[in-house]
Amino acid sequence: MLIDLHAHSTASDGTETPAGLVASAAHAGIDVLAITDHDSTAGWAEAAEAARALGVLLVPGAEITTSVGAVSVHLLSYLHDPGDTDLSDLLADARATRLHRARRMTELLSADFPLTWDDVLAQAAVGATVGRPHVADALVAAGVVRSRDEAFASVLATTSPYMLGLGSPDSVEMVRLVLRAGGVPVVAHPLARSRGAIIDEGVLEAMVEAGMPGIEVDHRDHSSEDRAWLRAFARRHGLFTTGSSDYHGSGKRNRLGENSTTPGSFQRIVAIATGLEA
Ligand code: AMP
Ligand code: FE
Ligand code: FE
Ligand code: ZN
Questions:
Q1: Quick one: how far is CA 46 from the chain centroid?
Q2: Which ligand 1 atom is the nearest neighbour of the CA of 152?
């Protein structure tokens, strides 16, 4: 039983359509796949249809951009009600903020590189959540860099003068919002230092106190020490742990199924979402 609970499609910054993502998952031997686009549920319907046809069990989800102070925190939400207007309005706001920020970053970059806003828009599917990866793809197309990796290591790095932050909702408040929308909140890659500053234990604890029942542990951005620390944290707080690929198609090195989640953890997600467990 191979369970991968974190993957992106062209509804955000993955390079495969929702149906293409599910087909790749079936090909990789994945039994249970979560589609978790950044701040969007736009890929759910197409992915669900493909999953039915291919015999993959699809878990609809999202990876919500939140923050605590200057620290960016990604919060996975599984099985929430997409019709919950509090949450869906917030995700719509997040996408609008991201579009505006990408446009401003493009303006800054266009002073020094051959890059226009149309070039960036050409890299994103209609309605997709726009982020730095699309700016990166436009820079690749313009011949400024060779890959997304190279863009993120240079002009799109968190320390770059072209980099702009994203004012995002509070992480602890978002845990409550996901729960109110019937979803199961799980913090994504909490110790991924390569992405910038990480949250301290106190914030993780506040998220747990707000009702977050699980944490992502097995992820390629976590060292073995990070994983051991997170597993101990999970034991202390009675949390389930997950492992996931964070697949982005050809946009990242991450391969489907490279990390996976146990059936026991997945059962807890289902039990919480269906109200069998508080
Ligand atoms: P943003 O949320 O717009 O600031 O962009 C961050 C996103 O870029 C993350 O969610 C990752 O999916 C993606 N990302 C970060 N580093 C890389 C990289 N080296 N190559 C490709 N994508 C990356
Ligand atoms: Fe991403
Ligand atoms: Fe993430
Ligand atoms: Zn992700």
A1: 18
A2: 19
199 Cα–ligand 4 center, Å:
17
Q: What is the pLDDT along the chain (278 residues), one digit of tens a residue?
A: 999 999 999 999 999 999 999 999 999 999 999 999 999 999 999 999 999 999 999 999 999 999 999 899 999 999 999 999 999 999 999 999 999 999 999 999 999 999 999 999 999 999 999 999 999 999 999 999 999 999 999 999 999 999 999 999 999 999 999 999 999 999 999 999 888 889 999 999 999 999 999 999 999 999 999 999 999 999 999 999 999 999 999 999 999 999 999 999 999 999 999 988 87
Task: Determine if ligand 1 sits within 6 Å of the CB of residue 133.
Answer: yes
* Shortest-distance atom of ligand 1 to CA 101: 3
How far is the centre of ligand 4, averaged over its atoms, from the C-alpha of 215 (Å)?
Answer: 14
Query: From ligand 1's centre to the CA of 41, what distance in Å?
Result: 18
**Which-ligand-closest: CA of 133?**
1
pTM for the structure as a whole: 0.97
Q: Is 251 in the pocket of ligand 1 (CB under 6 A)?
A: yes
